[in-house]
Write a structure and sequence with these properties.
Number of helices: 14
Radius of gyration: 22 Å
Oligomer: single chain
Strand content: 15-25%
Shape: globular
């Protein structure tokens, strides 16, 4: 199935960088020697229309999954980065672990800067050999047997953050100081959450912008809608904790995120522009004023932030912990299910009822936060380059409209 690619006059290379077949040829060329290159899958897109594009690919190289990134800009000459000697030492550190002999290079035909993991132009920690990371963590008092020092990539957001498993530990690596500070604060908060089950922090390595925490041997629920009641119980326990000095997560922040999504949707699906803008305008008109009625909030609560374990679910990823109206977390969980796990707002409302049952009461402004949560995620089908992203995007705009009619 050929996936739709939006045109961009200022970034015409988008037609190549989002074409899996074209990128298979480009990436094969970048390896510089004979390899058996399997299918190329677009995993993640960061896109500012007319300005820049960053694409993460999963690539089968000689039977092993490898990860590559392309970067394009309408403003900057990225070929200069490929030749910058500042990266030479880091390139040397990944020798033999990256599939390409030169893991940072500029492809003139694609008009893009390419990188192969474990090299990342913005996150030096990823270039560290597993043995070196183990030594740093052992120096922090963490026991990691030498025979268990193998790294596994758990999540990767190119040029922003990554999560890896090393033995029985999860390492998070950040590009930005602010994100790193949020991660450190989240681990500190985890120690103050009493009986609420969550991964505990183990080490902070400032020069690498890296945190370490325990690995919990569970998996996110396969059917997240069916875990709604238990999720509501977890939220009730989290919201009952009174933590000081948390960042406020206010309706204005939801509106900012929704506005960003609407701007992208307007560029990639122009036929949806008016509907998306109307939904945003209605959200702005109805925005609640919560005053001081705030609780300790996860900030990005959804089914993927729960791990099913014996004795009940554990809550993970507290990087965005803040203080917010109670409705934010409940609505975010339900809105996150659209359109895949909940085909429409009616299905999301059923999940929301389960959350409320577990939570023990129905917070104010649930409908507003549900609409905002759906609209802010209208960018996700394209971000993940779903084969039917145009249809999914329209479904999400329609779901946000329906939520506003509640």
């Amino acid at each position: 199935m050929r996936v739709a690619i939006p045109p961009d006059e200022r970034l015409p290379q988008i037609a190549v960088l989002l074409d899996a077949d074209a990128m298979a040829r480009t990436l094969a060329r970048s390896l510089g020697r004979d390899h058996s290159l399997g299918p190329v899958e677009v995993r993640y897109i960061r896109y500012r229309p007319g300005k820049n594009l960053c694409v993460h690919y999963a690539v089968d190289v000689d039977g092993t999954e490898q990860h590559a990134v392309s970067m394009a800009s309408s403003k900057y000459d990225l070929s200069l980065d490929a030749a910058d000697p500042v990266y030479d030492a880091r390139i040397a550190r990944v020798a033999g672990r990256a599939p390409a002999s030169r893991p940072l290079l500029y492809d003139a035909d694609a008009r893009a800067l390419l990188q192969w993991l474990p090299f990342d132009i913005d996150m030096p920690a990823l270039a560290e050999p597993p043995s070196a990371l183990r030594e740093r963590l052992v120096g922090c008092g963490i026991d990691i047997p030498a025979d268990r020092a193998e790294l596994t990539l758990l999540q990767y957001r190119p040029r922003r953050r990554a999560a890896l498993r090393l033995g029985d530990h999860v390492l998070k690596v950040y590009r930005y100081d602010r994100d790193f500070s949020d991660g450190v604060a989240g681990l500190a908060a985890a120690r103050r959450l009493g009986s609420l089950r969550t991964a505990q922090g183990e080490a902070i390595i400032d020069d690498l912008r890296l945190t370490a925490q325990e690995w919990l041997p569970g998996a996110p629920p396969a059917r997240r809608a069916e875990l709604a009641r238990e999720a509501g119980e977890v939220l009730r326990e989290l919201h009952d904790h009174k933590l000081d000095d948390l960042t406020p997560l206010l309706p204005s922040h939801r509106l900012d995120a929704a506005a960003t999504a609407v701007k992208l949707v307007s560029a990639i699906a122009p036929a949806l522009t008016q509907r998306a803008q109307n939904a945003l305008g209605e959200l702005e008109r109805r925005a609640p004023e919560p005053g001081d009625a705030l609780v300790t909030s996860h900030g990005d609560f959804h089914g993927g932030q729960l791990l099913e374990l014996p004795g009940g679910p554990a809550l993970i990823d507290l990087d965005l912990l803040g203080s917010a109206p109670p409705a934010l977390d409940l609505a975010n969980y339900a809105g996150h299910l659209i359109p895949k796990d909940a085909p429409d707002v009616s299905a999301a409302l059923t999940v929301l009822d389960g959350l409320v049952e577990g939570y023990g009461r129905r917070p104010r402004w649930l409908e507003w936060y549900l609409a905002a949560s759906i609209l802010r995620r209208a960018r996700v089908p394209f971000r993940n380059f779903e084969p039917d992203w145009p249809e999914q995007t329209e479904s999400m705009i329609g779901a946000a409209e329906a939520a506003l009619r509640l």
